[in-house]
Amino acid sequence: MAALPATNAFTISASQAAGSTGDKGLMRTESLRNPNITVQFAKEVIDFSSQYGTETSISYTARNLAGGANIFPSYGDFTQACVFRTYGPWWKKAPSARKPFERTPKTFLSDDYIEITFATKVYPIKLDIYETYNPGAIVRILACDMNVGTDVDTGLSVCQWVTLWQGRPEESTRQSRIFSPPLKQCPFPTELLRLELCHDLAPYYTDLDCVQLHGTTEPVTNFSCVRLHSEQFYVKDGDGVNVMSTMTGALKDLSLEPNPKEFNTENQYVSKEIKQITREKDTGHEEIKNIKQTNNLDSVTYMQSDNGFFDLLPGEVIQIILSNMDLPGLCSMAQTCRLLRRHCCDSLQYIELNLQPHWTQVTDAVMYSLLKRCSHLQRLNLSWCKNPQLTINGVDAFMQFCGRELTCLYISTCKFVNNDCLMSVAQYCPNLRELDIDSCLQVDSTGFSQLKNLLQLQRLNLYRTYIDTMSLTAIIRSCPNLQHLNLGSCTCLHFMDDIADELGKNCRVMNGVYLVPDRFHDSKRKLKSLELWRSRSISHEGLLRIYTNCRDLEEIDLGWCTELKSRTSCFVELTQNCTKLKKLFLTANRTVCDEDLLAIAKHCKDMEQLDILGTREVSAFAAQRILENCKKLIMFDVSFCSGIDFPMMETWKKDFPHCEIKKSYQN
Amino acid sequence: MQSVALFGRQIARAFITSIQSEFRPNARPREPLHLVTGTAGFSKSLAKNQAFKKWTYGDDAYFIARNKVADVIGVADGVGGWRNYGIDPSAFPRSLMELCQRLVVENQFKLQAPANILEDGYCELLQQKTPLIGSSTACIVALHKEERTIYTANLGDSGFLVIRNGEVVHRSQEQQHYFNTPFQLAVAPASQEWQVLSDSPSMAQSTSYRVEEGDVILLGTDGLFDNLSEDMIVDYITRMKDKREENVQVQTTAKNIAEKAHQLSFDPDYLSPFALSALDAGIAMRGGKPDDITVILAKVSCQPQET
Fold it and tell me: Is A559 part of the contact surface with chain B (CB cutoff 8 Å)?
């Protein structure tokens, strides 16, 4: 049933192939001379993972990618550009960084994505991406076909994504450029494209100006259409496209369960065996098991069939070998023989499951087929999974079956996430510690209020959601272990001071309850990172609640919090109270002055990342004191600080080589 | 004496205008209108080697923007006092006008409230990474093409006139705190935040007025209105009659008006409107007022059928 979309796609390409009779070479030259090439700029930005600007603004927002070129050929940090939330490795080095998933394919690099539509459907020939600041971050271009049809069984619309280009991030050339990577032939006309970006090598924010699509209304070379479709079923090289396509086949095949009955029973027997081991060893599937158990398992394997030398290998060794494979590899491996299939389907191989790299392929069918193996699943990443065939039904069933041991769930920018979804998460995943629901815009207070049932929560990412003050207060009250909280760009939090008060109380109560010396304090019971990026309502009163109570704070992002004024000496007191701060962002706070910098230099010796962009009140002297005193500083953003000039920067770069000093410019 | 007479005339005009607009029969939907625009201006500083910047004359800035539903024009006059603090006074109005222009082009505004364009433009100004400092007056006129109505917002002493058949039928009101100190939008440096005069964009005076084909809208900064009396301006505009090559005519007239204002501003014996209002404020002075001058002339005409 689930194999249907692929079959559909194949028939399309086959019919296209039937339409062509001419010589391939001739067709190509014709296409070059084809006068019907449509050239168009993006019409609209329909989806994106993050943006620098405020939701309603026209400055530094994703929406700016639509329309023609505003900046090109200028190079610099312009407001008219499309800018994403992060750059470089800095966010991955901060205390709030998430642990990476095992089994993530090496080819998957994307940090952010943006999806754009065009007025006219075309077969893409060339795509011009105008990169006007720190180019080189684009790693993948995909095209979507939304008119494949509907699935007969589920009635859901099918959409097909094809990678047109994939590459690695490049070092920035510090020049604006038009990036036109060689595209693969797209087998269908498309009006929806997606760019994926990897910021790892970007020295500062990457700015995109516009995107121009060249394409024809008729397919030009039928040869390439056929070639692309054949790649969907056969692996040719290590290219990401092929791996992805194979992955579909593999996952879908498993969901069909073509195996004989006796094998299933045996399989169950073995997994029961391993479950016993699990119970004894907890999650130690990589540890060496004791001999008795090994023998036990071995005998089972031996009795089963003749697998040559593989039978001589202890099961644990096979398991360890398999644990090094990525998910598509594991799925391919499962198709080789029964022995390996049994090991590949073992629930211990599915402690961590990262489906984000495979976001195009994850459907309800995939969820159903995976749930049988994921009974010990602890970490699940479903971010970006937006296939219309993935619905709340599949996720609900999956959570019901596998949610019990789940501690970590990332579902950012997922279309299926709604109030019902959070309800089932709250119901089936009582042990959840990390929850990432950033950019899930379909959830309202009904859904958010469910989260208060997740009593173990330590990390909560609510970036760019419609969380309201009431629901968040309830969540903070019921989750005493909260360590990392991201409230960036939450437009509905109108009373951030109340939230801050609640966070402060939460910390204080715990200090009261655990009246024990500091060293016995459970380190997990303190707020470690807090992101208030673009909060319009936090004032010095609110900040006071935070720094007087949550003194173990290691990271706080107060970028674009315009209500905070330095003259209330809130920043000085923040640094005096929270001396463990490793990351402090005071982006675009125009009031930050020398006094604040000297306080940071004096109190925050552990400071690693500091951002004071856009203040005119600081002098080079105070900034230098920070560089001298904060020995661990690795990133210091002094962009648009008029008191610090470029010659000064050059001197510092020589004197403080361990620290990357950023100074952005507009021209 | 003259000013009294002027005042009386204004009242009479306002009265006539209101009667006119009340008795106007509900016009049937006709083809949409649009604005044919021309701009001219002078920088107060005579230095010829000044870098020419798009959409600015000295510390003045303007914009002309069009989208599907509206044609919008606007001027902003930077407050020169910032030069004493080592800050370029033209940066603020220029950025403000650029942002307003982008808001129009990207359809990010509600037409019926151009004050919102100002407000949004001002908010966007604060959203920039560059810490911009300065202040400016602003005046925006938006023509709703289908409704045949202009919606205006004015803050400070820039202004507009709507001239029909040689008569001023609609005009902006000057907003001043005291003599020569208009209402203004401002962003002050953090250390002097409470010392700087700053009005909220919501204090802009908003009006709406139905226009007809052939009406002329003149938008200018105080450099124009302080040096040219209304009669002189109307005179220039009534001379512009011929319908052929509308845009050339509009441009020439705008240039003539700006040139005259510029010439008079350096005339030490000329009793300028500025000198008159200075006399009213009890300051004895004569002559023109050297200032940056910006003139946007817009003739309301039927939309050419771009087929």
Answer: no
Handedness of CA A517, A523, A527, A529 (dihedral sign): positive
CA-based nearest residue to A99, from A555, A434, A526: A434
Q: Which two tokens stand for residue B94?
A: 């220029």
Q: A312-443 adopts what CATH topology?
A: 3.80.10
Partners of residue B130 in chain A, C-beta under 8 Å: 614, 640, 666
User: For chains A and B, what is the number of CB pairs under 8 angstroms?
Assistant: 56
A54 contacts chain B (CB < 8 A): yes
The CATH number of A9-241, from 2.60.40.1220, 3.30.300.20, 2.60.120.260, 1.20.1420.20, is 2.60.120.260
| Residue count (chain B) | 307
Who among B128, B133, B190 is closest to A59 (CB)? B128
Residue A593, token pair as written in the block:
């002055």
Compute how many other C-beta atoms are within 10 angstroms of the C-beta atom of residue A529: 20
Q: B63 vs B59, B68, B71, B100, B103, CA distance in Å?
A: 14, 17, 11, 8, 11
Pick from A53, A67, A666: CB nearest B127: A53
Are A165 and A141 in contact, with CB atoms under 8 Å apart? yes
| Min distance A59 CA to chain B CA atoms (Å) | 7
Q: How far is A40 from chain B (nearest CA, A)?
A: 17
Nearest neighbour of A590 by CB, restricted to B99, B103, B131: B131
Do residues B124 and B99 lie in contact, with contact meaning Cβ atoms separated by under 8 Å? yes
pLDDT tens across A253-273, in order?
Answer: 443 333 333 333 333 443 444
Domain ranges, ordered by start, for chain A: 9-241, 260-302, 312-443
Peptide bond before residue A357 is cis, with ω within 30 degrees of 0: no
Residue of B nearest to A54 (CA): B127
Percentage of chain A modeled with pLDDT above 70: 79
Using DSSP's 3-state secondary structure scheme, residue B166 falls into coil
Q: Would residue A239 be called left, alpha or beta, if left means φ above 0 and alpha means ψ between -120 and 50 degrees?
A: beta
Q: Which long-range contacts (CB under 8 A, 24 or more apart) does A516-519 make?
A: none
User: How far does the CA of residue B254 sit from the closest CA of chain A (Å)?
Assistant: 29
Q: Do B131 and A614 touch (CB under 8 A)?
A: yes
Q: Which of A562, A591, A640 sits opposite B129 (nearest CB)?
A: A640
ipTM score for this prediction? 0.81
pLDDT tens track for A305-320? 577 787 888 888 999 9
